[in-house]
Amino acid sequence: MKRIQDVSEEEIKDLYYPTMCKVTKARQITSMEKWYELEMPASQDLGHGPGQFVEVSAFGIGEAPISISSSPSQKGSFELCIRQVGTLTNVLKNYGEGDSIGIRGPFGTGYPMESLLGKDILIIAGGIGLVPLRSLIHYVLDKREEFGRLIILYGAKNPSELLFKEELSDWEARDDVELHLTVDQADDTWTGNTGVITTLIPELDLNLNMTIAAITGPPIMYKFVIMSLKSKQLQDDHIYVSLERRMKCGVGKCGHCQINGVYCCQDGPVFNYSDIKPLREAL
Amino acid sequence: MECYSLLRTDVPDLIDHLGAYGEIVAPHSKGDVSYSFEVVQDSNKVVLDYDRTLLPLKKMFLPPQEKLMDFSLKSLSYTPIKLHIKPRVFFAIHSYEMQSILRLDHSMLSGQAESNYLRRRKKSRFIGISFKPDEFHFSESVGIPIEEMEGFDLYLNEVDGDYQLYVLTKNGHSLIEGFEKIKTAEPEIAEDRKFNKKIRFHYNRLPQVFQYAYHSEIWAEVASRCVGCGSCTLTCPTCFCFDVKDEVTVTAESGMRQRSWDSCMLSTFAEIAGGENFREKTINRTRHRLYRKFKYITDEEGLPWCVGCGRCTAFCPAEISLPDILNDLINEDEKAQHHHQVMA
Question: What is the CATH number of domain A13-107?
């Protein structure tokens, strides 16, 4: 039990005040998503790890947890990519270059980068799930020689919803990235794979001892992707998932993000699958 | 431990004496049948014999609504709220209530320490009082006797209509310094207090019961009666979940960010943008509430996070009884155990 006597009044830190960050670039990248580059005051670093999130403030509306989309290896700025799905995100759409956005964080537990060194990284992103995984992808690309293969599976509903198209082309062109794209519904321009993301998994040639899978996507996706990976004999503790919950406070207090007894904003949003497998509310 | 005798008629004088330390908060009558913790204006109005207040003492540390900041929509900037908390004495507090504050301390200090809670909590003094259990109290079953004095600076034990005052801490000692209407006494034990409501198992066996209760049909039965109003969590002294909302003035030029108590029993509590709801059905939520009280934190800390105050049961409009749910789960567990033994 933690006791009140154990904390001195000088140690008390305010938790709910955002830091105002300047938008240095902003671009609507699909009909639903807008991308922002932000700068902390005095060009400080945000100090995050891949997989962490921030609470984004829009005064008059409130706050929402948003994944950090850039790698910590990028200095002086960080990036967010926000889908317009609610009141707050629809207000944020109106923010552009020169505006200030309130940020709290970074919060949560991201990927354990130390233990991923030397491993083959298998990224499995569904839809907007690419946004948090992009932080991990860029981190691996920036320290390319410290990791094994980088395999990226990315699926969207249709070609127009694919995010970061220029980067996808760059990754496609690289010899040291294995990119596999799929869409649920093709259009006239699409020449690639059609079908849900699990259709990309059977053909993968994986070195099981070396491979770490990182999965992020809509809630429905996890069970099926994990089933496919299990049928390839990938072990539970080689699988990481990043879970979306309503992380309102970010500091393990408000209760909205609880998954059984676990606070998603503290122990997650990135979890090792072997840790959350016993939690019935997780997947 | 020092023990003094104190006449019931001298209690208002004691309250006045304590006023030298700071603001005094104590139970008051509210209407004919309800009680509430309020700041004392007149020490004669403090109620010494009460079953339970509607809202728990947590409201003094985590207010039902609390402004976090003012903001301007013109300049897109904000002004923090600075808290100035007077020293406070909480008077005539029952042991389960004190235990709930000690549990809240743990919850608020875990992870990042909750700043406003701590500021409100730091200069507090607590004076306990004994009570006669009614048909809802079951604190003894969760390990909290009436005379549990942990957390108190002073404790008033009623014996034959008057009180014995126990001095438990240095702070307690300074509180009564100079108060002359007490006399040194030998501690006596009051015998006429029995709990009517009991949990059939010792509380340390409950996590085991909950281990196998997740798919019990009892949850569906409870959920079928629950109206989802959230009274149980709002009146629970160890529940602390909250929501944060912005309010804008009519001119739309400024506003404030405010947090308010929230409830995991409300249907949208675990909903995310886009509509996905991770505890969509009532059954998910009734179960979650009890697992929060008897399993999740209990596994870590070895204590039930329910203090047996009986509020959730006494104030439930659907007459759902928490100890009855526990006893039903225990009965079911025993039947399953018996079945295993017969099969073996």
Answer: 2.40.30.10
